[in-house]
Amino acid sequence: MYRLIRTAAYEVEPGHGPIVEAHHMMRPDPAWWAELTERYRSTRRGDPAYGLPTRHLGSLLCALAPGVVTADAQAASARSDAPWLYAREHVPDDVIVPLIDTWATELLAPRHVTTDVPGIAGDEADDEDGFGYWYGNGTPDNEREGCGPANDQHIEHLLERLYEAPPTWTTEDIDLTSSATSPAGTALPGRHVYRLLTEWVAARLTARPWHVRGRTLRFKAVTDGERSELVSWPPLRHVTHRRAWYYSARLSVHVQTVPFHGHFRVHVSPGIRRWVTGSGTRPGPGQRATVLLDAPLPWADADERTPRLIGNSVGYDHRLRRLSWQRRSTATLLPHVDIVRTFPDPEELFRSPEELLLGRDSFRAGITYHPTMQGVHRIGPGLMPRERAELDAWVAESLAPAFRRVPDLTRINRVSKPLLGRTADPDRTGVENSARNPVDVAAAGRRQALHDVLGGQALRLDIVWHSKDVRDEVLHALPELLGLPHPEKTSRDEWTSEAHGLTVRMCAVRRGVLGAPLKIPRRRGLRRATALGQAITARTEQVAGFPAPQAHATVIELDGRARYPRAGTDPKHALRIGFAATGRLTQFIQPPGEEAPDLGQRARSACLDVLRQIGAVPFPPHQAGAAIPENLQYVGLWLVRHTSRGPTRCATRRLIALRIRPGDHEPVHGWDEIRETWVPYRRLLLTLASDRGLPEEEPGTRVPGRPDGSAGRWHGFENPWREEAQRQIQSILFQTRDRPTLLLASAGNLRQCWPGLASGVLAPDELAFGAGEPGQRLSLYGPDLRFVLLRDANGRGEVPQWWARDEAGAIGFSAGLWTPGHAAGRVFYSTADVPHTAARPKGLMKLVPDADGRTAPTKNAWNPRGLEITVAGCLSAKALADAGREQEQPDDPADWAMLAHQLRFHDSYSPLAWPLPLHLAKLAGEYVLPMAKEGTEAQP
């Protein structure tokens, strides 16, 4: 058993001192910037929500102006005195000014006007949702505001002023490691640290090649906001299936803090970046692809290449009926800056991806592969622990002596899993205590949970099938999971299995037209969301007449994404809404194929999900210690956030609260905010699916003044919506005061509506909802309330990657709860097992395969998710004293961290990404499917 784990995290070496470097900083002229902003808004129909897309300019300057480090988009406004452009060396005006001129000229071009750059159209031509041009608002191009000769003269005059008075530069020594401390002892890095320090780290790593087993990998940087990404360049090559496949090592760099810890960290997360090389692989309608460009600098006296790879976005454009650059891609500006070279358009990129990846006329272009693309990639994602450890050693050497690796975490020597093999109470109906085999024990637990939820009634399941293989696998998987005999056919389409006091009746019906793509109405002036809503309504009407409406749930065979290439035509959400309207829960399964090869395992998982949705959730007893109250209840909060590009093209936000009371006949309940009461889990799911409207008075849902009701921008509506969400949370906590409660929340998920969860605001044993509000004692929300806050990587490297190690040098994985030995004993790290379906040799090398691993690049590498567990609130000695309960024994935070960790292990599922209450709350979000109201036609 491993006793230590190592994380890919680094902190400033205490004896090194601050890292101070001279930087050149540029501030825009306030008057010129304000006029540019007004001109830009005038092309956007005067909407004050539109700000200047300065990230586009920052990307251009970082790519083509040597020495420029980063641009702060938030500081680039007339109301800010902070510098927005940083450079390590002086950048001549004849480099900066033409680039700003090019950006501003393209920025102020009239909308809906096709540019002279191949493969680029105006803003509205970038149909992100893939529905097509017939959803325009009907305003002719010549009636747009801000168009005409007079406006052209104003723009020309504005740009002339830029050349007459270029932006001014100042030079200042900047401490890249400056940091303050919150009252609770959490590090508060300066705002500039998040940008400049990641660039400093990226510069150190790109300047030092990685030599490994006779090969050399060099990295190039790609900057994106507050994150720096590096990829090995040129890409690596692997031949399999009679063709070459290309991939690169990837490193993501982030600056992060840890609650109650006085030093910030730098997380360097390794991974794999795969490149498209086949002409058949391309993004489908409504999807985007990232393209990284590597080109020579366009300046006459520059012989070098761009200092970093230039990030761009490609999507399908229905006006042009082809792939096109998205409006804010840097590639749209390159032909205006470099008039000598000819740059390929997106269609050419996807016709000859391998040729351009290898280089043509001093130009390279790499299209990053994503699993949602049409086509497959033979290089597997992820890296195994041995290779990640070798990369980490190289990173540590590159950052020394300024940074050191964060000390290894040590195992908490306690039982780290609940009693998964424990049967239910033998005195309860339907479960015998003679089971000894773990499989039989698990089946007995499911039978007992199902018996309790259904009150002894038979379970009725519909199977909507297209392939007999799918039907037969589901027919056998459900009885097997419940420990029942193989089903017997009782009629033409019905099967029954019965034993141990439990009956399961299954009805198999052909899918028919229910699986056909949705027919999206095409009518000019029709909103995207309204058109999709009409298509969904038509499909739900077909579901209403479907047989067996008395079933509890339905397993539906639905084809993969290749069957529904057009965005919005996948009927999954329509079927979920339609079946929910008839009182039936839904679970989907794909037919056998390359996208979903293991049919038996998928049928088993589908049936387990059916039991979960019904509420038949066995809750294994914990082993976190005797200090945990016996009558403890668990409450999990999850925020569902849909943008206008969501499943139904309607934006909404909904808070879901789950309550679990082990020992109850129906242990899982959800909060019904309409009725303001707790309802069984299955009833909550059906209620969420039936509540499809988007009332205009709902705070933060629809933005007045926008003809399409889009909630893509929430300016002016965050505070009202936050206040409503916080009111709901407080109301839920009030409803749980009657017994000891463990509140579980995800910081990354709830931070948007609960600013008090930010690490810099968090204080032990207090709850603060607003960012500027003082915290209140936790006991005010419940005398026996405990609060555990969890955090994962969240796509931003908030939690570092990890691997287990021992003193002898062995490296692998290990499940357990780990402590760093600091942060006042409140912060822990939870790791889980590798699922048996993802087991791979721990020493597998993909970047530089050895003689024993020639096929290693094709293997998928599973990295179990690490969770940061912060016991933000418990009955500490201080909390008890403040409440006048000094005579009671204070809590040990490790007990509550262990309890949260054990909640990741449940039944026969693979280890859960989140503790069970959060897992169930998150999955309930699948039923949040708002639909646009009728009568919302755009006005001509």
From TrEMBL:
<dbReference type="Pfam" id="PF13111">
    <property type="entry name" value="pPIWI_RE_X"/>
</dbReference>
<feature type="domain" description="pPIWI-RE RNaseH">
    <location>
        <begin position="634"/>
        <end position="930"/>
    </location>
</feature>
<feature type="region of interest" description="Disordered">
    <location>
        <begin position="693"/>
        <end position="712"/>
    </location>
</feature>
<dbReference type="Pfam" id="PF13032">
    <property type="entry name" value="RNaseH_pPIWI_RE"/>
</dbReference>
<dbReference type="InterPro" id="IPR024996">
    <property type="entry name" value="RNaseH_pPIWI_RE"/>
</dbReference>
<dbReference type="Pfam" id="PF18157">
    <property type="entry name" value="MID_pPIWI_RE"/>
</dbReference>
<dbReference type="InterPro" id="IPR025085">
    <property type="entry name" value="pPIWI_RE_X"/>
</dbReference>
<protein>
    <submittedName>
        <fullName>DUF3962 domain-containing protein</fullName>
    </submittedName>
</protein>
<dbReference type="InterPro" id="IPR040496">
    <property type="entry name" value="MID_pPIWI_RE"/>
</dbReference>
<feature type="domain" description="Prokaryotic pPIWI-RE MID">
    <location>
        <begin position="523"/>
        <end position="622"/>
    </location>
</feature>
<feature type="domain" description="pPIWI-RE module N-terminal">
    <location>
        <begin position="9"/>
        <end position="421"/>
    </location>
</feature>
